[in-house]
Amino acid sequence: MTPPFGMGDRLVWLVDATLTQRCPDAWLAELERSLPVLPATTTLLLTTPSKPDQRLKSTKLLQKHAEIQEFSPIPPWKTEQLVKLVQTAAQELELKLTSDAIQRLAEAIGNDTRQLYNELEKLKVYAGDQKKPLGAEAIAALVSTSTQTSRQLAAAVRQADIDQALTLLADLLNRNEPALRIVFTLVAQVRTWLWIKVMGESGERDERAIARAAEIGNPKQLYYLQKDVQPLSLTSLRQALSVLLELEAGLKDGAEEWSLFSSKIIELCLLFQQPRLDRVKAQKLR
Fold first, then answer.
1. What distances in angstroms separate CA 191 from CA 141, 196, 237, 240, 284, one per listed residue?
2. What are the residues whose beta carbons fall under 8 Å from the beta carbon of 15, sequence distance 6 or more?
3. For burial by CB atoms within 10 Å, which of 31, 107, 202, 259 has the most?
């Protein structure tokens, strides 16, 4: 922690530091001695995959002397936060995007911050010196849209189209799309449908209130989403979330990817098929 030799500054990076989860007295004493006298030319960076334990003296000491930032991934269903993430990153890179382009980028990438910055760097090179903001057409042409394909998978499941759903799933997995990322997108979509259905059946008519509850970034999408969920039942949507939870748990436990995923996709399609069959029977009885 001494000043750097010669000109320049020094960065000391402690990777996977445990000081905020477990800190022996000797380490705490060393922190208390060193932190107040760190040279202005030295930056001490501690990174940890675990949340700091607020009860520890070491955590309280670091809060006093350091700037603490948490980098938790944004849940994929919080579309407003994903849009803000894209806006902030684009501003940092001084890249001008239209509102439609920002929305399209948020949908395409989700909460993968690393991919977001990679795609924005690519778009910045493409934009060059032009002053006109890039539109959604450029995003569609240049950005990998695996999340968009996952949404197409969700739509096929909602329509109970087993063949199309399995085809899309196979395409995603063949392109090495992480299975858990596909699950997260499906969970986000089903959760949105469930909120819209719940709010609609409760008698809520305020579109802004429904969009806010369902965390829909663009309220203009609500009309189309309401049409999507009209054939679905509350029961099937609740059961779908349980099926997706089982799928996530199985994948994390190391189950064979295609076998588990395809069986759960078929189960979801059958869930959403039942309300349609019930309505057909009801119409015949009339």
1. 29, 9, 8, 9, 32
2. 47
3. 107
The residue ranges of every structural domain in the chain are 1-54, 79-142, 146-275
Could you tell me which CATH class the domain 146-275 is placed in? mainly alpha
User: If you write DSSP's letter for every residue of 42-80 in order, what string do you get?
Assistant: EEEEE--SS---TTSHHHHHHHHHS-----PPPPTT-HH
Structure tokens at 78: 């919080």
What pLDDT does 8 receive?
Answer: 75
The CATH architecture that domain 79-142 belongs to is: Orthogonal Bundle (1.10)
Residues 6+ positions from 122 with CB-CB distance below 8 Å = 142, 143
Q: How confident is the model at residue 237, as a pLDDT? A: 96
Cα separations in angstroms, 175 against 51, 56, 130: 33, 45, 33
Task: Tell me the C-alpha to C-alpha distance, in Å, between residue 262 and each of 155, 242, 280.
Answer: 16, 16, 27
How many separate helices (H) and strands (E) can be counted in the chain?
Answer: 13, 2
Q: What is the mean pLDDT of each run of 10 residues along the chain (286 residues)?
A: 68 88 91 88 87 90 88 74 92 94 85 88 92 90 73 92 95 89 92 93 86 78 87 94 97 95 97 68 53
Residue showing tokens 């977001």? 116
At a CB cut-off of 8 Å and minimum separation 6, what does 65 contact?
35, 36
d(CA 21, CA 3): 28
Please give the structure tokens belonging to residue 152: 């197409």
The predicted pLDDT at position 275 comes to: 57
User: Residue 186 is which amino acid?
Assistant: L
pLDDT at residue 77, as a whole number: 66
